[in-house]
Amino acid sequence: xxxxxxxxxxxxxxxxxxxxxxxxxxxxxxxxxxxxxxxxxxxxxxxxxxxxxxxxxxxxxxxxxxxxxxxxxxxxxxxxxxxxxxxxxxxxxxxxxxxxxxxxxxxxxxxxxxxxxxxxxxxxxxxxxxxxxxxxxxxxxxxxxxxxxxxxxxxxxxxxxxxxxxxxxxxxxxxxxxxxxxxxxxxxxxxxxxxxxxxxxxxxxxxxxxxxxxxxxxxxxxxxxxxxxxxxxxxxxxxxxxxxxxxxxxxxxxxxxxxxxxxxxxxxxxxx
Length: 272
Known about the structure:
By secondary structure, the protein is α+β, with helices and mostly antiparallel strands. It has helices spanning about 5-20, 165-175, 195-200; strands at about 45-50, 50-60, 90-95, 100-105, 110-115, 120-125, 135, 205, 215-220, 225-230, 240-245, 250-255, 270.
């Protein structure tokens, strides 16, 4: 987090740590970036087999597609199935992301599943056709991810719109830990600078190796800072997506950072 902060922001952070809020679940906030066109970097469901019918496009994991209006994710584009909730109604997919995407029978990333490799166009198998409830972008799959501000703005017990709240959202929505919050594992994760210690206490792997999907931790800059690693390069540098660094309480990205003791870099990588 940057050193220049308003008294209001500091007070809000203290209050959030003192009285953790109830975790919020990822919901249709992703809809702001969804237009029914299967663009590069998106995972798309189709109402009919063989990539036919109305399309519903996603840029991240969703733990519950929702089964009723107005809270469900729906098929967006013109064609058969337009306006129908995606949950239990999709027949085929197109994975235009750079990583494997896993579709699940149950909400919360549970039950039978089917994996789709980057670039794959396929029908859902007999178990999952019209019986899919959630999907997960598998972090660490090796493919760099296009940056996108898909934050649902839930706090999960952290200060609103701070780096910790955004990182918590990415852990919950993309890294297969939908229950992640400020009390995950029975410990208080607190300010960003203490996340590496909290991770060790609950058994999350901590090292200095950046991978796509890792949570980068800076524990030398004021209260610390955390960010989501979305790209890694052959020289060991990496890109991050983050909140409340260059843009106060807002989304931003930085490129070709390193693991170092510098205040603008990161010292630890958490691998959920």
